[in-house]
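Hi Y.,

Following your request, here is the sequence exactly as I used it, all 702 residues.
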Amino acid sequence: MTSPALTDVRPRWVKDGALGAGRFRYGADYNPEQWPRDVWQEDMRLMREAGVNIVSLGIFSWALLEPRPGEWDFSWLDEVMDLLHENGIDVDLATATASPPPWLTRLHPEVLPQTADGTVLSPGARQHWRPTSPVFREYALRLTRAIAERYAGHPALVAWHISNELGCHNIYDYSDDAARAFRVWLQEHYGTLDALNDAWGTAFWSQHYGAWDEILPPRVAPTQRNPGQQLDFERFSSDAVRDHLRAEAAVLREVTPDVAYTTNFMVAQNVRDIDYATWVDDVDFVSNDHYLRPGELGRDDLSFWANLTGNLAGGRPWFLMEHATSAINWREVNPPKRAGELVRDALTHVGHGADAVCYFQWRQSRAGGERYHSGMVPHAGRDSRVFRDVVALGAELDALAAVTGSHREKARVAVLFDYESWWVSGRDSHPTEALQYDAEQLAWYRALLDLGIRADVLPLAASLDDYDVVIAPMLHVVTDEVRRRLEHVVRDGRHVVVSYFSGIVDGHDRVWLGGYPGALRDLLGVTVEEFVPLLPGQPVTLGSGSVATTWTERIVRLADGVDVLDTYADGDLAGAPAVTRRRAGAGSATYVSADIGRDGVAGVLRGLSVDIDALAADPLAADGRVEVLSRTNGAERFVFLANRTDESVLLQLDGDAMGSTETDADGTLALAPRAVAVVRQDAAVLAAAAADGIRSSSTARA
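Below is the corresponding structure, written out as tokens. Let me know if you'd prefer a different format.
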């Protein structure tokens, strides 16, 4: 594959300051083609009532825009674009390439993707195309150019929306097109077959390759497929979809160089198989879709992924392109959001840096596969709880306009997130299939929230220089470069915390030899002889009372200067070290060898906080009941306080309440269940307090 060159000079935000200071962008995917024209006028009236000022348009409209090959019908889209502009609503216009029309797959069935077992996926849903198909690419770029040329000067156009949720359903294609592109990718990365054979360990099971044409995607095979081949195919597949993004972007850059473009990431959803950290430089601003998990876990899960999105964006404002006003339609059970959750979820994203809050979709569909997915205008219509909440959120965002353009404030604690460790740690033929990388990440993040400690969720490649504590949960894939970066943190007098099954393999999924945790063995000062995964229903207790349910490890050697913080209390490892800490000057490296869960890791962090002040609780967190988020524009600090509980929390605030936040005369706030309060503070006052030795968080007391 070849990627069209992109100019280095690109606008960073939507033109006219839409993602800069001034106003929040608020809206939804708008699909007027699903409705008769008389509904369009009502849509405009209701959008104005709700405060909607931007919509994503035309995402799934290819079949209507090009009803027959090379025959264009823009009349309806012209009308909608004009109507939106007349009503003061801007457009994030899609290239409409997400799903090909029926005529394309009839004429060219070779664009249809193929699964690992050889099944060719049929049209009738969406994203039924191969990312590496030259035929699909030709038609998609022709459509992209036609739309770009048609609407290049339209006053409603403020951004381009490339495709939609790229790779959501077609990330892995095992077709002959993919096989050819995979070989080209491998040649570019390895240069020689000898290098590839070494990286993949093809001496095992007689897999040695003597010609590039012998290499296939990891299709269904009689037993386990080569781990190195699987990892490279995952990398290739992420790059293949990214290559399509770059191809469409090149057309847009040529035709409309002054209009910024984006594509909606799915940082938390189905597409765990895209390494979004590698995509950030290929969009003008970061956008993300997020859908709340139901139940008690959901709020913290939302915060975790919004946090990661904000750090993928480098702390700059980003665009929440899709989330749901209430129920979704694609889980086994899809409960509606509870009272207050629509506003809470939106403002939590804002606290993590979003300057745009949008939904899928504006009007809940009457027909089609997502007809039970909630919209801003539900089936019940205007007279509904959902629409009243939509209107209230629009007013709240308008009142918080001063927040726009500000950046996320960095925390002192980082949680490292690595897509490749997620892919590889969940591979087949491991000591257990019960490990869940994302669950381990979330356990540490929730423990930090429980302790009132603000943390940044960082992509692995991000700089660690500004963090006093770096936590690496299940960092399974560790290269020499990553090892050196973590060692530097400790040598610099700072602190690293690592959990089990970390440091095990290199960048080719080959095991580091000499004992676990492999590449991190010297950093942590421990040697693990073997893994001891646990059978279902056979938990192991630690001396602290923490309980491991899935994973333990046999630590057999400790280096000088390593303290044992906790031991196994029962089972085959009774008396053996479970949690250790190696001190190195002012720095330290802590290792947790078991899956002790949210409560267990909270205990570890609580113990470390005795001499690591970065792990001290923020008073505003009210013993973990409130998540504290902050943004700053240099002159002012905006503090978002999100109630994590179903009970009211009393807070004593310093600063000016914003939006719907109301305090008593003495600054007392009763933060309602599932609510978010916003307070504005003067940065100069905070700086003066810090100069007097008072931590910034002490300017507001719980």
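The chain has three domains: 15-170+257-404, 413-615, 619-699.

Thanks again,
Q.
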